[in-house]
Please model this.
Amino acid sequence: MNFKRLLLLLATLSILAAPAFSQTGDVVPQTEAAAEPIADGTQAESEIATDTAPPEDGGFFAKIDSAMGTANGVLGSVFFYPIPVGGGNHIPLLVAWLVLGATFFTFRMRFINVRGFTHAINVTRGKYTDPNAHGTGEVTHFQALASALSATVGLGNIAGVAIAISLGGPGATFWMIMAGVLGMSSKFVECTLGQKYREVRPNGQVMGGAMYYLSKGLKEMGMGGLGKVLAVMFAVLCIGGSMAGGNSFQVNQSLNAVKETVPFFADYSWAYGLIMTIAVGVVIIGGIKRIASTAEKIVPSMCAIYVMACLYILFSHGSEIPGAFGAIIDGAFNPDAAFGGFIGVLVVGFKRAAFSNEAGVGSAAIAHSAAKTEFPVREGIVALLEPFIDTIVVCTMTALVIVIAGAYPGGELAEAAAPFVEADNGAGLTSMVFGQDLWWFPYILSVAVSLFAFSTMISWSYYGERCWSYLFGDKSSLVYKIIFLAFTFIGSIVTSTQILQFGDLMILGMAFPNVLGVVLLSGKVRKDLTSYWSDLKSDKFPTYK
Model:
């Protein structure tokens, strides 16, 4: 292992956490900026809790949790810095960064999110894949898509959407969908670059992702120094995010949902952690091929289970669907003042989509770089399906059920939903709403949440491991996997919310170096896309299905 780079990693993490301590070692109070309200009525760092009060036991984890709480407050005050947008409303810096980037990519690539949609489906189903070819790569187009989707389709689709509707009203759904449409362009550009600048080892192992296109791509443009800084920053943030936000946090949150229907785990949480650790270990030790093989089975299954439950309820209330869409459209452009007005509803919808599909974060490029294809643009086109499935399909399904049930201020279930909203318990709110029609849904939700958490963990283990290998060398990957599995078990026995949510902040922080680099490299993608699209329209690509 490269110990100089290990010291760099530790130093960077310590800098990120440094604001948590004063020179005397005492916890520094949360800054006022971290608590400044934004348009949806929540705090600027509402997606990341920043309560610094330590648990009552006062033990080691309590002290770390308190310190991380302050660090989260400082980082949250930066990432969610409220940018005034008129009428007393604000939009968080990170959300603006992601949405502006997605809008830029949509126009720069001439609406590839729309014109490339049908081609994306054809490529994914294998129409352009020669069954007898042995191209460079480790997984198929579908496996790469499933691996990336398994990291994004998760608790946010169930819990986050319910809270978003409760805060922003039905209109938030429309802007959530619009943000998902724009995010399709972000996914296309970053995943095309992931393929374009990947490295293939002599044993066939693929190394790719933002750290490679940031360092190599910007070096080609004479900005090698900037590229290296952005690449290292991205890798460090990804490693930290994978350990907590993409791992321990998933175990912790899924456990909270599962123990409601399986009381055994409420008393023996370590048993749940042990089961998850063994299950994850069996998969991730096998690398991307086993991860992809597992993901291509789990992702369709978990989506099918959840979507079928949604469809059952929607069909049971078929006559109310037109009214729900009417409320969504009306709420998007003529929202009640209780939801923060037009800008307030827009911000809530955009924020939920940005946090759900991770478009612009750069994580998916790591998975798609391993796909077998001779055209980087082709894999980028496959990747644009992710925000469509994650946000436009799964999130919208949840939103429609919530809207029809009236689980928002002024709705029929407003009073029943209030306690869940106050506790920020989106999973509980969704379970309550679905339970109105399906008494057995809480049990299905427990299964879905576990699958969502498991699939997210195995994909994020790969993301973190690729970044670890980038910093410390390929031979050190086993060290990362062992540490990752340790954090999996820890997630079931530690209630250090701040430690776990620190990882979520790091995941979101990945968007800053990634979007900047991708914007600078977008001209290269535009050139490749123009050439590829010309060949596609000229029928130069052979088809097989």
Remarks:
- Residues 29-537 form a domain with the Amino acid/polyamine transporter I fold (CATH 1.20.1740).
- The longest helix spans residues 224-258.
